[in-house]
Amino acid sequence: MKSKIITLGEIMLRLSPPRRQRFVQATRFDVVYGGGEANVAVSLANYGHYSHFVSKLPQNEIGQAAVNSLRQYGVDTQYIVRGGDRIGIYYLESGSAMRPSKVIYDRAHSAIAEAQVDDFDFDQIMQDARWFHWTGITPAISDCAAQLVKAACEAARRHGVTVSCDLNFRKKLWTSEKARQVMRPLMQYVDVCIGNEEDAKLCLGFAPEADVEGGQTAAEGYKDIFRGMVETFGFKYVASTLRESFSASHNGWKALIYDGTDFYESRRYDIQPIVDRVGGGDAFAAGLIHGLLTYETQAEALEFAVAASALKHTVEGDVNQVSVNEVETLMAGDGSGRVQR
Length: 341
What we know:
There is one protein chain. By secondary structure, the protein is of the alpha/beta class. 35% of the residues lie in helices and 21% in strands. The chain is built from eleven helices and 15 strands. The chain has helices spanning 36-46, 61-71, 122-126, 137-141, 143-158, 176-186, 197-204, 220-233, 280-294, 298-312, 324-331, and strands spanning 4-8, 12-16, 30-34, 50-54, 56-57, 81-82, 89-93, 102-106, 131-135, 162-166, 192-194, 237-247, 250-258, 263-265, 269-271. Strands 1, 4, 9, 10, 11, 12, 13, 14 and 15 form a nine-stranded mixed β-sheet that branches. Helix 2 links the parallel strand 5 and strand 6. Helix 1 (36-46) packs across helix 9, helix 9 (280-294) runs antiparallel to helix 10 and helix 10 crosses helix 11. It starts with a strand and ends in a 10-residue tail after the last helix. The mean pLDDT is 94.
């Protein structure tokens, strides 16, 4: 069943040196558009939902190019306000083998960072919506953006809309102290909380009993913090991806979900070689939203989310350009990569 789903955040211009070059080698950049909630909106549109992206973009050709990049995938852009001086930019140097990827932000004073709550009619936006998704990146952009998130969450609560949050801590945007100060009060509005071990610790103060950096991603290390998060904030679901990072080109990938009663650990995928891991978490969030709206059990929902995000690692760019059928084929065990004729 198609659902009206709202996402709120920043869509950015991504500039990347081609062919995995270093920044210092680059004489040109490849251009794509993306951002946490925008990436989720694209995936959900691909899955057949009425997907809406809420943001503010400058009234110029670059702003229009960002809008067009969403429209080509069927994302509804009617709630994007036009105005402000600039679009946020980020530069991505894609890593390989033991060399990690690097991101440089140039997003200060972007249109959405300086947007005001009265720029949006959140009650109208949430009318007839079934789900609202946001990430911790948006309130980290600016105090103004944090106010937008709070106003949107309050409107979602008034209209009985399910709210999900991907914690997505970004140390280049704010400190852990500021993140906790802003994020913990916002958790009262959240039904579904998504985040890895670093996000849970730095945004909410919960740490797993697992050496994740050392490759220990056993689900047991997460169960106590999931229980604590549910008890503290009343979440209906808590989910986390469990990434084993052997190199920039080779990751293990699985996830865990908890509904307040039962835990479920997904199948594990061995992803090698990685084409582009940016947006992998957003692909997981979108897959989980679709899964919880579509399937009968949290196990099926999580398996869809993990398969969708595993596929994202094979797709260039920020957004996950796969269909429900492709995800369900992988869920069923067909990961051979054989040519489809």
